[in-house]
Design brief:
This protein is an alpha/beta fold. It is built from 13 helices and 10 strands. Helix 2 crosses helix 3 and helix 7 packs parallel to helix 8. The relative contact order is 0.06.
């Protein structure tokens, strides 16, 4: 039984004991006030003595009341103390531990809004081992979050600072209204000009405004849901396969993006000279230079530039080797 239920049960028992004691002293001829007073002083053992000299029957009744009432009162007091310690001190300790956890996080994702969309986003991110801090105004909704969270309004700069926006990698706004998402986007962009921001949009009209406010990507869940349903109708096997690769996580291989950083030894190489497939086992499906469109199915002569994003397919170990390759000194290259 939880502490809340035990506290309720003990308080009910305490009220019952006081009622029985009062009724008993009333039966012995005490007035209402004297009966309540004698019962309370007996159960709490404060030692004020008898209101009137006890008869043999009153003494026996008082002995019974002491044996039952004092034990009940002591139990109720212990549960009450436990309730406050667990509810307040325990909550304070948990809050302090969570704040220290958030303060130590780097390159995490801040997710604003915990609802059906927000919980689905968090589930996917956590399945891919991403660190997530959830921000929401409802303590009841946050009670369902498995991981660190901040209770507060995401449009408040102080709340975003508490969530670690100065150290975050991505800000996702998944609030219910376009106005709230727009305001969070503006606030996040003003605080971190370099932050990658993904915004939720409920209407087509708001998408352009969110981009103007600083969102790098704008997503309308209804549009995505409609597109996916249409894809399942026309190409069900392709759509299900892509879902498995991107979202299921049960397959050994997956689609990943790998960025070629400034100063990478692969910068200036071609796909052939870099020998990406030979050294890592990954297959490059597309390439994207900063500010450009995707180059799909790139030829072996395609040149890799710094800042380029490679869209690759491979298992976890192969992708990990590629991430190491783009920042380490490559093996001597040769044409294949």
């Amino acid at each position: 039984m939880g502490v809340g239920r035990r506290l309720t049960a003990s308080l009910i028992a305490m009220v019952a004991i006081l009622g029985v004691g009062t009724a008993g002293f009333l039966a012995f001829g005490y007035g209402p006030l004297d009966a309540v007073f004698q019962t309370v002083t007996t159960v709490t053992t404060v030692g004020f003595g008898e209101v009137h000299p006890f008869t043999r029957g009153e003494k026996l009744f008082t002995v019974f009341l002491i044996l039952v009432g004092v034990g009940t009162a002591a139990y109720a007091l212990s549960v009450l103390i436990e309730f406050f310690v667990e509810g307040y001190l325990g909550g304070a300790f948990r809050r302090h531990r969570m704040e220290r956890n958030i303060a130590s996080m780097q390159d995490h994702v801040i997710l604003c809004g915990w609802g059906r969309v927000g919980s689905a986003i968090a589930h996917f991110l956590q399945a891919h081992s991403a660190s997530v801090v959830v921000v929401d105004t409802s303590a009841e909704r946050l009670a369902m979050v498995e991981g660190p969270y901040v209770l507060g309004d995401a449009t408040d700069e102080a709340v975003l600072l508490e969530a670690g926006i100065d150290r975050a990698r991505v800000l996702i706004t998944a609030l219910n209204t376009d106005a709230d998402n727009l305001y969070v986007t503006l606030t996040g962009r003003s605080m971190r000009p370099d932050l990658f921001i993904v915004s939720r949009s409920a209407t087509q009209a708001a998408m352009a405004k969110l981009r103007q406010a600083g969102a790098d990507r704008v997503v309308n869940p209804q549009d995505l849901g409609g597109s996916r349903m249409a894809a399942l109708a026309l190409h069900p096997h392709v759509a299900e396969f892509l879902d498995l690769v991107m979202h299921d996580g049960s397959l050994e291989f997956r689609l990943e993006q790998v960025e070629v950083p400034e100063g990478s030894p692969l910068a200036g190489e071609t796909l052939r000279s870099a020998r990406i497939h030979d050294q890592t086992g990954t297959l490059v499906l597309a390439m994207r230079e900063p500010g450009s469109d995707f180059r799909t199915n790139p030829p072996p002569t395609a040149e890799i530039v710094a800042g380029e994003v490679l869209i690759v397919v491979g298992d976890a170990s192969q992708v990990a080797r590629l991430r190491t390759l783009v920042v380490s000194r490559p093996s001597p290259s040769h044409s294949s």
